[in-house]
Design a protein that fits this description.
Elements (H helix, E strand, L loop, with lengths): L5 H14 L1 H28 L2 H8 L5 E6 L6 H7 L4 E18 L5 E10 L11 E2 L4 H6 L3 E5 H5 L8 E6 L2 E11 L12 E5 L1 H11 L2 E8 L5 H15 L10 E3 L1 H44 L1 H9 L4 H42 L9 H23 L7 H5 L22 H12 L1 H28 L4 H7 L7 E3 L6 H9 L8 E3 L3 E5 L2 E7 L13 E2 L7 E5 H7 L6 E6 L2 E11 L8 E4 L1 H4 L10 E3 L1
Helix pairs in contact: 1-11, 2-9, 2-11, 2-12, 4-8, 9-11, 9-12, 9-15, 11-12
Amino acid sequence: MKWGGSVNSLRMARFNIRKHKSASISLAILICLCQLFASVAVHNLKDNSALFANKVKEMKAIENYSFIESGLYKNEYEDILKKDGRVKRVVTQDAILLWQNTIGLKDGKEYMCNSVFINGAEENHLENISLSCDLSEEELALVEHPIYAPYVIKEYYGFNVGDDFNINYHQKDFTFTIVGFYETTILATGNMGAIKYIISPEDYDQFASQYGEYKILGYDAIDKRDCEAILGDFTKQARQMADTGKSFNITLGISYNMVSSVASMFLVLLAYLLLLFAVILVITIFVMIRHRISNNIEEQMTNIGVMEAIGYTSKQITWMYILEYSILAIVGGILGTIGGECLAPMLNHFGFMMLGLKSQDRIAFEIDGVMLVSVIALVSLISFSQARKVKKYPPVVAFRKGIGNHHFKHNYLALEQTKYLFQVRLAIKRALGSIKQNIIIAVCVCVATFAMMFSVILYGCCGEKQNGIKKMTGFEMSDITIDITHSISGEKLKKELLKRPEVRKVNLTHTYINVALGDLDVLAMVYPDYKEVENINFYEGRMPIYDNEIGITGALAKNLGKEIGEYIELQYGDYCGTYLITGITQSMINNGTTLYFTEESVKMINPSYQSNELGV
């Protein structure tokens, strides 16, 4: 190249950056944020989207659990699954299941969940685990009630080895001492249906004598898409095999498909949101670069003509613009990469914590390198597509401000004859003159508005009060749960509590009930009056009122092929009842398959029903 070639292009690029400092800094910040969001999103998708599946495979964990009361369990149930050609592995494990107990947290608050206890002296058939214990054998022998907890207890709730761990069940406290932690997959967090612990044989026997024992019947499916079908066929055969007077019932069912979706749902959603914002920033960067280069060419048209006249080629001038924005892309991209490396471990730790696994810090330089090169290449391509317009302006045309020898375009909205609304006509004329640029700006504004509105809606759903998420749960949440004995009137206690000024609402309900709907075991929720609930909203039809009416979730209605106005037949023990579907709602529990009764309607299949729980 003449006149120093690329050196002169680089010098002019640096001069333009210094000349437009504020605009250059703004563009570098946008590129930095784009690189940061894209890098973190790709990190998240790579590390966490398949994390749960990989961990299950690594630990050889059983993927599907069915909790059956030991008194109702028969060895033949295991044979049913072993004979199913869709099942590749079947195991059983004795366990204790405490339904809706509370854990005393370190900040004085309580967390309600279900708890599963495994006998530490027995072989764990559910998965290959490695217990982490910092205590010596002598120190461990001095602990009266040892317990091994999953890593979520340490990572999320802040407990450490040696801390007291209090569990309250049916108004009775059980205090353990944490002696170690372990990684587990299924039942690692409360969101998976229960939290699984390992306790001493003495404590296990004490729980078993007081609350009974369960048999965990676990299986792996050859094709994970068959998990629900396998469970349905198994339940049907097990009911036919049950002893007279003992109805078969699965107290708690955990499926791999449900747990894996819950485990990765939030992190994958967050990754796609970050990618969405990265795309929005790319559009913004494109508009900004296009606008800046176009304006710069128009403003510096005469200077461009002078440069071409003294020997600069259009290629050199084009390279000047490419280098200018490539420098900004390199600076912004490097800063975004550094920010991404600081933010990615935090999200990675959060992802492991949500899965109940021990966090591992990993740095993937190949991802950062690919994303950085991609951003720089994209910015360079955008700047090249706009800067090559310099070729349209040879020196003579550039000296005329871009006007050629002949101009045959029709002069729309001519101004020489205008008498009225001169400013409006001039504004429209200018808008039509830059129609492509204005369309891009309009699209950018639309996308930015969408992102802003989406963020506001997302904050409304997932913000401080989490109202949107609560309405999707399909059940009422309470700060305090009170168990009611048969000798106490729930209605009277409810009225007494509502007299207290600090009490806003009291729900009278029952612990979970499972009813039989054909071959399915379905969770039943019971409330006296659905006008008093806040988180159960029927998006189609209305809430149940009379004793022959019932509400149903959309997932269950789709599975059964039922609509509002149709009937379903339910069984609970030896009682059967036919109910009219009056409303369809949504639920995040029990795979979204839940039924909603009133107190009067549930007594059709459970005449002895009585509310036993108050949510305050």
